[in-house]
Amino acid sequence: MIKEIRIAVFGSSKVSVGSPEYRMAYELGLLLGKDGFVHVSGGYGGTMEAGAKGAREADGKTIGITVTGWGPPNPYISENIPMPDLFARIGKLMELGDGYVVLPGATGTLIEMSMAWERAQKGLDRMKPILLFGDFWLPVIQLVKSQLPHPSLIHQGDEKCLFGDYLWLADSPSQAIELLKKIFFSCKSNDKIH
Questions:
Q1: What own/partner pairs with CB < 8 Å and gap ≥ 24 does 173-179 have?
Q2: pTM, 2 dp
Q3: In this predicted model, what pLDDT tens digit does every residue of 44-56 receive, in sequence order?
Q4: In the predicted model, is pLDDT for residue 172 greater than 80?
Q5: What structural domains and CATH numbers belong to the chain?
Q6: Number of other CB atoms surrounding residue 5 within 10 Å
Q7: How many Å apart are CA 128 and CA 83, to the nearest integer?
């Protein structure tokens, strides 16, 4: 039996229904669901709701990682995992995600992206790809890369790979899905996925 691949999607809880950001997250979720990926998110509103809605409309599975006492998950979550606090929630998102897609967001999204990158840097999750959506996070990535002492980790040859073999850039939902399929289903990468 093939292991289900869970993609944790990070993004803003503040986007409104019908906004371009909401529609983008919805389309990403729809494509994840159509291609058999499990959509994992923080389980609440904004891009979390949009992505879960898209995934469910494609008959995909959705997992929400919520915090006890913060309120119920959005109605598109098929499995809710409540955690006792924010840091346990972030830890569970890191644990469950086989890969991550980082949408534009604020400080919460920054924490999630930073945690995923740091875990990869420390060798804890080296084979879990991190896809940044659009150029929103590029200034942060460029600043951090300029401070790293290991320039050899900067991947050469693929303009969509920003660092090592795990930090990627996607310009659209369809490109994100194509990158995920390339990473998870190519012969070279299959040896790395655990």
A1: 173/24, 173/27, 173/28, 173/30, 173/31, 174/31, 176/28, 176/31, 176/101, 176/131, 176/133, 177/28, 177/31, 177/32, 177/35, 179/129, 179/131
A2: 0.88
A3: 999 999 999 999 9
A4: yes
A5: 6-186 (3.40.50.450)
A6: 19
A7: 22
